[in-house]
Give the backbone structure.
Amino acid sequence: MIGHKQKMVDNNQIGDSSEQVIRTVELSKTYPQMDVPAVDKLNLEVGKGEIFGLLGPNGAGKTTTAGMLTTRVIPTAGQAFIGGINVRKHPTLVKQLIGVVSQQNTLDRSLTVRENLYYHGLLFGMGVKESARVADELLEKFHLGSWGKKSVFALSGGMAQRLMVARAIFHSPAVLFMDEPTAGLDPQSRLALWEILQGLNSEGQTILLTTHYMEEADQLCNRVAIMDHGQILALDSPVNLKKSIGADAILTVRVEGDPLGLIEVLKLSIDGVSASREIEGGVEIQVSETEKLLPRVINLAESNGISILDISLAETTLETVFINLTGKELRD
């Protein structure tokens, strides 16, 4: 990875858990005047070189978890370690080991694009020449080479996000934390950022990201922890999480009138129905047998006097896993 890796802590401070870059033990946070914890006894391990995702709706505890791991939020109870260093006891050391990209644009508006990188290097103890060299390399790497002398006000949202990622990895952190990294970005900028993160990870960068976008977690993450109400409901690779529900596809049917009758008809007549639920104007059914499924459903509906307005079949997603675990949609 581009950058100058400083010797900021010695091996004794890092300890024996060099492959566990992040570890939490019963980590909890309860905010004043809250009846329930924002994060409740979280036990988590993230290995070196992973892209690890915290997936869940707004208010699930993802941002609070990231805040505690990055020293911005003080835990109520429990412990957290980055590279074996206790976050509560040694926050200054931890800050040297991490890079953070928050939801908000934190670029210095008084500096040019290049200066936002250059002065970051000086802040982390790099020499003038080394900081200038790395700044120029990162500008090229993140396709910002022609923007170096411009004000950050000239950057689009996607370009500003790329610059924040470049700044966050300038000092070669052990972990790159990204809180909702593509929130507010257009689809093209989102895909461009995904490509950048995958490239960084291929170079060995450990990344922890929080997101409520199921596609983002599915595409990027080696492992995903699904969170709700401050607790981890499930943790595994996206592939294994989707396999765990025992369905290969989701059948969505919208009908005229009461859709509950269609659920009963399909349960009786279609093999491989593992779960079903009513949605607005129709039903959603998890199925494991998909061969010639759509024409069979249409025929069954017609023979039972049910008028179909729309029908579709899609692959199982992480949102399906979340619905199975909580009974509600990810974006509720």
